[in-house]
Amino acid sequence: MVFRYYSNALSQASRSVASAIMIVGLLLIGFGVLIAALPQFFAYLAAGVFFVAGLGCGITAIKIFWAQSRIDRAAAQDEPPVCRENVRIHTYHSDEL
Question: Do 59 and 73 belong to one domain?
Answer without folding.
Answer: yes
